[in-house]
Amino acid sequence: MRSESIRIHKFSNGLTLVVEPMTEVSSAAFTILAGGGVVLDPPSRTGAATVLHELMYRGAGDMDNRMLNEALDNLGLHRQGGASTSYFSFGGALIADNLIEAIRLHADVLLRPTLPAEDFELCRELALQGLDSLDDDPRQKISLLAQESYLPYPFGRPVSGKRDELKAITHDEIKNYWRKTFVGDGAIFAAAGKVDFEQLKDVVGELCGSWNGDPNSKSEQGPCQTGMFHHGNQGAQVHVAVMYPSVAHQSEHYYAALAAASVLSGGMGSRLFTEVREKRGLCYAVGASHRIVGPFGLMQCYLGSTPDNAQEALDVTLEQCQKLSEGIEQDELDRAKVGLRASLIMQGESSSSRASGCARDMLFLGRVRSLEEIEQAIQSLTVDDVLAYARAYQPKQFSIITLGPVELSVKS
Amino acid sequence: MEFKRTQLENGLTIIAETSDTARSMALGFFTRTGGRDETPEISGLSHFLEHMLFKGTDNRSPFEVNLEFDAMGAKYNAFTSEENTVYYAAVLPEYQRRVLDLWADLMRPALREEDFNTEKGVICEEIAMYQDMPNFDVLDRCRKLHYGDHPCGNSVLGTVESIKALTCEQMREYFNRRYAPDNIVLACSGKVDWDMLVQQAGELCGEWKPSSPARAITDFTGTGAKETVVQEKVVREHICLMSSAPSMQDPLRYAASVLSNVVGDSTNSRLYWALVDNALTDCAEMACDSMDGSGVFYTYISCDPQQTGKVLDITKRVLTDVVKGGLTDQELTASKNKIASSATLSGELPMGRLVPLGFGWVYRKDYIPLADEIAAIQAVTHDDIRQLLQAHPLDKPTIMGLGPCPKI
Domain range holding A56? Predict the structure, then answer.
């Protein structure tokens, strides 16, 4: 909770450095957000981002695949990252003494990946196998199906890719994709933990000063889709995702939306868990979360239930989502606030959480919120604030995606 | 960091690793009971009982329990394994008293018939959920195959049939036997007020009745059996290999974590280079699960069913090569760095320290500070690895395949 310690520097090439030193930890974590994510995958090449991210770690600078990976592992780096909808993420956490070396290696990964042809084929094959594995992991798959059904192109494009499109990607396309979208302008480098701002400014400046190129363009926004989308399989449960609109970061309702999600699904005393699982025993897993994908804010519910219980579980879930605007008790809001506050303070103990939090704030807001700022915004919320949000964003139509042995319906 | 310990007269052990600089605290009741302590008639009972502890006491209704946890902003839950049932919460330090008040009350549950029947439905949903997760299912089945009749092969979840047949009376009897203070450790980490903790635990838990619960500890090297479960609806072939490993009491467990890291970490391990780098499989990982007087190395692989034979041949070759040739200097050093780094990262969070702290006492009645754990890892030598591989050779594993492949 020490906002004064967050320091930011923008380099002349448009790369932004954010550093949050933390006392009492011996670790350091860093997060680099760059590129454009799946939204910028070439047309009819959905999944190119996933292939490229994997390929970038298969040799960089004068290191081949094995040398690079051994060098990263020797540092004890816990890698975090991957391709997502609107950015690529790189980085990880490690003992602070090894941070600078890990950054040096990542400068090669970002600016000088070798992108070898033979490994391109292997990375694509891994992506195709990943698609098969998704069929054996319905909870993961339903989330991707939901995003694709609900969000307009290109924001709904599945990170995991599409089979035919993955097969069509060529090595030259991947190399061009990297060249075009991996630019310093707009990229974010964030570090937190036992770190020194001045040292990082020098090191990142030296390593990434030459990272040039034109900034990536923004994708156009179309409307979201509503309706029922069913995907059949022979599983034991019906997996259900429910999506409806909410707000994004910049909205005045942003914190009220977080509190509303918490009233619906914050802890085991929240409405969905109480009504669907505790009172009726219809599910093991049920919940809702507030998500932001690209420029879209959305509320996403998930439930998994056996065919005999699934329809009732869905009915109760939808009813609870609708009823939020009818009234919220002061106690419910108090519980939501204290839950959000505790999460915030616990995130403040983790270098990884802080590095990724700083990076995402910088990317989406153009500034970094201190933990105090977030805490104050949450503390000042009133029942009226949350109700105003719930009324403005009361779900009129849902997008409901089901994966399982039976189809469900919505009561009119 | 400072370690503190005391014991109530009824046998409840209380331990804490306190830190003045932490901003949160974590607390857990570690109950030494799980699937291995069940008979076939009560299969799944430990896990079902874990659910029932959230259903309230004579003082609190189920809904009040959830609301009270939420009112503290607690990050709380419980988990049941083959041999432990752990109830935990992480809270801001100002809620220490309140969260202990709540958990201590829940540890003497009402076990009401009506809640018992509603919760059966939830447990059956949970069993169905795992049926849709072959990556989980194959591990569960392989453990059973590996341990045969040994109690460590008992299913934690049970089956829909075993759950439906359970009675509330059976649960009460099991509870009285297993949830005795001399079978429970109360562990805390982070910013803990120790004096308040001990005094309050004495008031709340001092009347619990001891029962001298027993557990037969026998090791078992494994059946080495091979089995294929054919499921046409599954797309990938899910393979699990299991072989014996050091127990939680065995000093060789440090060498075991180094070995499993070199052989099967998700990045840069022998299995990674042999199977994932060349895209033969999209996942091939090994880990070590050390338990009470027993342990297993387990490897999980997911591959195209057509490639199953080839993948298994390569996996066996990787394991045989390790048994014959040991590790390289480079592998030994890199894996120690990786393990030390993860221990440091999780050790920075009170919640990350709670589980090693609690289990240290449950299994060995000892406390090992994080720095000593890291030093023990750094001290692992090639000789230790050789000794480990002699005692626990990797090359004759139990093998389970689950997927469309007719025979592995």
Answer: 3-208
